Amino acid sequence: MSRVQAARRAFLSRATLLAAFTWLPTRLIAASPPRIVAVRAWPAEEYTRVTLEASAALEHEAFLLENPLRLVIDLKGVVVQTILRALAEHIAPDDPYIAAVRVGQFTPETTRIVFDLKQAVVPQIFLLDPIDPYQYRLVIDLYPEKPQDPVARLLAELDKRQRTESDTPVLSETPPRRPAETQANRATNPRKPQPKPPEQDAPYVIVLDPGHGGEDPGAIGRHGTREKDVVLAVARRAKKRFDDDPKTRAVLTRSGDYFIALGERVNRARRAQADLFVSIHADAFVRPDVAGSSVYALSDRGASSTAAKWLAQKENQSDLIGGVQLAARSDHVAATLLDLSITATRTDSLRLAQAVLAELARVSPPHRPEVETANFAVLRNPDVPSVLVELAFISNPTEERRLKSADYQEQLAEAIYRGVKRYLERHAPRPRALMLAAKSRDPAS
């Protein structure tokens, strides 16, 4: 039985018990009931997230029902409120998992929310403590019963396209050899070279990581521009450039407006057999006059500047803002505390950062002329050269206006592409896919 199936069975077992016994509150209800202050929904092919934000922690019970498929959530000590009733309006018609939502007063002390489902799901429901800019949040994540791997799907699509483009017509018959053919003839009339096996043409895999997403908007400019939107737009433009180049292909860690945990971003790079990892951001600073692009590499010896340290601490809070279940987050911390003493990887990360910074400097003056270092969680990948790019400071009104421009986004995407290409041409070994293929064929490996 898979982990997902076990989780679903546990949910159904809980539903049976709850149907047989009267529910008991796990703690006393506060004198004043929690007030729902906001409801949000983030639909995506990978999973749908629904968030209920409240003035106090929401005591809840949840269970699944079948025939038809439904997820029921009871909020204890909560009365139906206008904001909560509006939850149905936040569900998109094309949501992959939710067909409709109903909200009602089940008992005088219990509000019931019923999600009509389009397919079997595995819910993950958890509470988050307040963190700026949010109050208490109840997070409802609906994952498919058969988990999807967007990285594998994207790579399969690119592989299929590559094979289609590289295929050559195959003759049904081999022309007979001429009787008078000699070794000299063959030397002066060499045969047409045969197509290389597909693996010999394997491209470099570049994983582009648009920061933030979903509940985590990232930095917000004075005129309301959200970092998560800008970096996704630039990443998509950069992906097109890499995919148009036969020697590279790009994979996005997220393709829409939804949240991906920091550890999962690193895991996706590893599953994609990434040759390089580029995390894309457009952050803010306390002073609006600070401007310019920056490129960072990982450091385990402290940050290269006070600003770099402040920025890394801010970016590393992404899991808390975006919303990650505590158990999953602790597993991520344990998994990413790896041996980061691999000198070659750190050296390659610095070389990649220098190449990208040099190209960004051709678009606009950089914030600092040299690569900076800091302990970014998303760069903790010991065997893949990784950098974090700050496109500009969204807190600077002039740069905020530029970041919203399609033309400026194109220039930034082109700079990232050129920087990566410069690094690959000067320093990169064979694509990782080729090295792994060679290793798998080696009987001694």
In brief:
By secondary structure, this protein is of the alpha/beta class.
Enter the CATH topology name of the largest domain.
Aminopeptidase
Q: How many distinct folded domains? A: 2
Radius of gyration, whole Å? 26 Å
Give the helix level as a range of percent.
25-40%
Largest sheet: 6 strands, mixed
* Quaternary organisation of the protein chains: single chain
Strand order of the largest sheet: 10-9-11-14-12-13
What is the architecture of the largest domain at the second tier of CATH?
Answer: 3-Layer(aba) Sandwich
SS-derived structural category: alpha/beta
The total of beta strands comes to 14
Overall 3D form: globular
Q: Assign the CATH class of the largest domain.
A: Alpha Beta
Proportion of residues in extended strands: 15-25%
Element pattern in H and E: HEEEEHEEEEHHEHEHEEHHHHEEHHH
Q: Note the total helix count.
A: 13
> What's the end-to-end separation, in Å?
32 Å
User: Quick one: CATH superfamily of the largest domain?
Assistant: Zn-dependent exopeptidases
Give unreliable regions as ranges.
Answer: 15-30, 168-188, 195-199, 329-342
Catalytic activity: Hydrolyzes the link between N-acetylmuramoyl residues and L-amino acid residues in certain cell-wall glycopeptides
Family: Belongs to the N-acetylmuramoyl-L-alanine amidase 3 family.
Pfam family, one: Amidase_3
Protein name: N-acetylmuramoyl-L-alanine amidase AmiC
